[in-house]
Structures are given as structure tokens and as C-alpha cells.
Design a protein that fits this description.
globular; 11 helices; two-stranded antiparallel ribbon; mainly alpha; 263 residues
Length: 263
């Protein structure tokens, strides 16, 4: 295989997997309600399962149990809003903290981020509407796609070689630029205020940090992928780590400022 062919060897499975996920996600976002909650609960619990498998490979039953707790927490919190998320969500990171592996603290932080993101995605769709949800997903996808192509075509200095050796500065900055143009598109279409043009690259960067955080964890445990569930992408966490980082930032920002889109 030539160097050029090897550079693009993962493109076809990535595209096919992405198309399937986009189709499923679009239908679920449009349906909303319990259908969307079921999808978010499934994705969140699978990511928690993958994280538990990474940090506890010799305890598969424990991984399933923690994933079950994560699913139950989301269903209880969103299905019965009288139960506060802050009462049930700590059960998941506490389960990671109780495990004997050295990565327990990092895993607990990542588990907290995943749970916050799962909760936030449902709240964003329910309270801000479809436009806000599509904007967030668009920022993550555009940033990833722009980073993928710019990084492979332009190359250049690595962003954080010790943790993510494939991520380049050219790809990182291209992701920010793509996110800004996506924000501009939402402004032109009348779905957002101009502030979203500034916010979009910041959210894209948060997504990139989510990707780096997962890469750090995989390096700590010596794993290439979080699992092999998605062809071309590895595991669910490999595909949605950026969405977790982006959603956590959006959740934090909305505690202080109204989101300049949707609502």
C-alpha cells in the first residue's frame, strides 16, 4: 500500500459509519421525547460501559453493572424530573472511584463528563429546540471533518504529540474555522444571533479537548480504541468523545448566559 493510500485507508468505513449515525440521529432528534431519551440513554450507557472495560478489563460484569446504573440514572432523571440529576448522577463516578485501578480518578472525571453530556443533550433538545441541537452536532461534525482533511493534506506540527500523535495544529485550527462558518450559516438562516459565530469555535475546541481526554485515557491503559462496535471509528466513545466535551461546555455556559441559538 502506498503512503497516500495508507493515509486515506480509514476514510471509507468512517464515511459509511458516519452516514448511518447521522441518519439515525436525525430521526431521533426530529422525534424527540422518549425516543430521543432512549437513544441518549443507550449512547451514554455504552460509553460508560466502554470506559469501565478500559479501566477494568478483568471485570466485565462490573462494567455492565456500572453501565446499567448510568442508564437507570438518566431514565429516572429525565423521565421523572422531580428527581434531581445531582442526586442520582454521582452514583456513576462513585462506582469508578470504588474500583482498585490507578486510573480511577481519571475514569471518574470522564464518567462525570459523560453523564453531564447525556443529561445536557436531552435538556438541549427539550428546552432549546431542534435548531440548537443541530447546531451543536454540526459544530462537532464540521470540526472533526475539517480537522481530518486539513490534518492529512496540510500536516505540520502536532497539537499534543505525547497524547494524540495524529492531531495537528492545521487540523485543529481548520476545525475552528469550519465551526465559525457553520455558526455564520445559522445566523444567516435566522436561527441564531451573531454571538454564535464566536461561540462555535470555542465549543469546537471543547470538543477537541474531549477527544484528547479520551486519547489520554486510552494511552494510560494501553488501548487503541474504546471498543470495536463502530467500523472505522472504534467504539462509541471514540466517535462521541468530542460531543461529550462540547456538550459539557455548553451546559456550563448556559448556567450563566442564555444560548444565542434556539429557545
Amino acid at each position: 500500500m502506498s503512503a497516500a493510500s495508507e493515509r486515506w485507508s480509514d476514510l471509507k468505513p468512517r464515511v459509511l459509519s458516519a452516514l448511518v449515525m447521522v441518519a439515525i440521529g436525525a430521526v431521533e432528534i426530529w422525534l424527540g421525547g422518549w425516543w430521543f431519551l432512549i437513544l441518549i440513554t443507550l449512547l451514554t450507557s455504552v460509553m460508560i460501559w466502554e470506559l469501565a472495560r478500559l479501566t477494568q478489563p478483568s471485570m466485565p460484569r462490573l462494567a455492565l453493572a456500572i453501565a446499567g446504573v448510568a442508564a437507570a440514572c438518566l431514565m429516572v432523571d429525565e423521565g421523572w424530573p422531580s428527581v434531581s440529576a445531582w442526586l442520582v448522577f454521582p452514583l456513576v463516578p462513585l462506582a469508578f472511584m470504588a474500583t482498585p485501578r490507578a486510573q480511577q480518578r481519571g475514569a471518574a472525571v470522564m464518567a462525570t463528563a459523560i453523564m453531564i453530556a447525556g443529561h445536557g443533550l436531552f435538556v438541549l433538545r427539550d428546552e432549546q429546540g431542534t435548531a440548537a441541537m443541530l447546531w451543536l452536532l454540526g459544530v462537532v461534525v464540521v470540526s472533526d471533518v475539517m480537522g481530518y482533511f486539513a490534518g492529512r493534506i496540510l500536516g505540520g506540527p502536532k497539537f499534543w504529540p505525547a497524547i494524540s500523535p495524529k492531531k495537528t495544529w492545521s487540523g485543529t485550527v481548520a476545525g475552528w474555522i469550519g465551526a465559525a462558518f457553520l455558526g455564520l450559516a445559522f445566523v444567516i438562516l435566522g436561527y441564531a444571533s451573531p454571538w454564535v459565530i464566536v461561540l462555535s469555535p470555542v465549543v469546537a475546541f471543547a470538543g477537541q479537548l474531549g477527544d484528547i481526554a479520551e486519547s489520554w485515557m486510552k494511552r494510560r491503559v494501553g488501548a487503541k480504541d474504546s471498543s470495536g462496535l463502530i467500523p472505522g471509528h472504534g467504539g462509541v466513545m471514540d466517535r462521541f468523545d468530542a460531543l461529550v466535551g462540547a456538550m459539557v461546555l455548553v451546559m456550563l455556559l448556559t448556567q450563566a448566559f442564555p444560548l444565542p441559538i434556539g429557545g
